[in-house]
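Question (not urgent): is this output format expected?
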Amino acid sequence: MDETWAKEFGLNYAQMRFVQDAIPGNEDAGYSEALVGVDGEWRGIRVEAMPKEKQVIDFDPTESVGALLLGASDNTTQTYRHS
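Got this back:
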């Protein structure tokens, strides 16, 4: 985020700095930060995945799906293999 992009989004200096300093999502932090605009108002928020969302994010398609994946049932259990 630089002054050109801040101007493009209509952000003031403090908002631009928030975006520059925001924590990107990573496993160690467990969350990320974002600036969200609604009806002309900008707010800094903390974004965290819910437990079921984390299961989908962490899903490894090379392993058996089964009940490990949200929405999976006995009828949809498969093993995916890369060729």
